[in-house]
Amino acid sequence: MDVDDEVIDCSFNEKQLILSQRDLKIVGAKVIERYGSHCEYLDLGYNRLNSIENWLYDFPQLKCLILDGNYLREAHLQKLKQPLVRLRVLMLNKNEVKLLIICIPEGIFA
């Protein structure tokens, strides 16, 4: 399913965007354009995401990111380069991450 089609059919309440269980492979440009600048809570749990570095920095206000039940690996997290200064909660349960402590670059979580 194309995530851009989901813009109309997603749950957005103030600063929370819920796109869980939608079989998504990407976070599309329309979602980023419409919600990225002010979204603080983003739930993308139980989709088919295998990358986060291409869109994560388009959500600068993000405080809570739920990515449970996707296809993320250590290599995807190692590609993060800029600090995520506002992020306080990152949930990665049921992904393909084996050892989280070695895969997140130092200073990403300021």
Please state how the strands of the largest beta sheet are arranged side by side: 1-2-3-4-5
Number of strands: 5
> Count of helices?
3
Largest sheet: 5 strands, mixed
CATH architecture: Alpha-Beta Horseshoe
For this structure, the CATH topology is Leucine-rich repeat, LRR (right-handed beta-alpha superhelix)
Helical residue percent band? 10-25%
N- and C-termini, Cα separation: 34 Å
Summarize the helix and strand pattern as letters: EEHEEHEH
**Can you give the mean pLDDT?**
83
InterPro entries: Leu-rich_rpt, LRMDA, LRR_dom_sf
Protein name: U2A'/phosphoprotein 32 family A C-terminal domain-containing protein
